[in-house]
Amino acid sequence: VGAKEKNHLIYKPYSNGIIAKEPMSLEEEIKEIRRSGSSRDLGAASQEFEMSDIFYFCRRGVESIMDDEVTKRFSAEELESWNLLTRSNYNFQHISLRLTVLWGLGVLVRYGFLLPLRVTLAFTGVGLLVVLTSIVGLLPSGRTKNFLSEKVHLMCYRICVRALTAIITYHNSENKPKNGGICVANHTSPIDVIILASDGCYAMVGQIHGGLMGVIQRAMVKACPHIWFERSEVKDRHLVAKRLSDHVEDKTKLPILIFPEGTCINNTSVMMFKKGSFEIGTTVYPVAIKYDPRFAEAFWNSSKYGMVNYLLRMMSSWAVVCSVWYLPPMRREEGEDAVQFANRVKAAIARQGGLVDLLWDGGLKRAKVKDTFKEEQQKLYSKMLVGAQEDRSRS
């Protein structure tokens, strides 16, 4: 409702129109199946297993396969029409000679003029970031070093944003994250970092990498206290929480930027937030990011494209158009656990960005569904049967 009032585009969970039904509980649906297939008294029938109950689980299984609301979040967002880019869900379509010529000219402009210019800007921004942060890192800690570090980071990130021809609209800047807090945002792409960092400085959190990324990380940490973890340290939740807590307790340090989903989602929904960053007793600054898929597909499908290939695809698009909303700061309420707090923040981000709020873990992108989810359905069904029998024995 909030998204409709703000005229935001709402992603339709059942956009293909195959399945349309009213939400019903397991017990109600099974009773409906039994009512349509049996003339016996429903009160007596619900007290024991019926062979027709199998059809409920078969139907739910087929529905899940036909319209899976989870796995389709890991592929490019479906567009209503072709957007003059051959990599949208609608590939090149010959509609008219005029449109074909226009598309051909667009290819020449994007690959012949925009791409070389953007690649040059990207190398310039990254090169300046490495060199200037290394120089600033030689200065003694103090106000001057912090000032220069902030200016260097903003300048280099803004050059990198121009390398993508990013057109960004920032809303409610009075809610921008402040020192000693944690900024959490929905995650669509690696460029989320520079989209946010071009409007304000953040302390990054991540795993230490090798190669070019490792060079950039080592240079950045010299000028600003970012939080990098070794591969073996990432799985140690207590160590991660301790490092984050120590950082936010120092009010002179920049706010931490975290993407609690842990993986990229296709900007149609927000999936489960990991509770780790919400266990720390500090102020959380939610941020909602929404990309316009008509000009570029910002979603990074890491199982299909490598980082370099993805960045080249982005640089050969028309532009990166997105909106960023800074939401009012939120704190954990009394009696609220970390999971409830994470869900409350996630719901606020989804509502503001016009995204679907899902409870599923983004880790399903690479892992199978846990057995506990299957057992939940079994428990609900057995509880229905056992509960009916207990009511019968009491009567």
TrEMBL record:
The keyword Iron appears for this protein: no
Transmembrane parts of this sequence: 95-113, 119-139
Keywords: Acyltransferase, Lipid biosynthesis, Lipid metabolism, Membrane, Phospholipid biosynthesis, Phospholipid metabolism, Transferase, Transmembrane, Transmembrane helix
InterPro entries reported for this sequence: LPCAT1-like, Plipid/glycerol_acylTrfase
Subcellular location: Membrane
Domain Phospholipid/glycerol acyltransferase positions: 181-292
Chief location bin: membrane
Name assigned to this protein: Glycerol-3-phosphate acyltransferase 4
Species assigned in the record: Scleropages formosus
Protein encoded by which gene: GPAT4
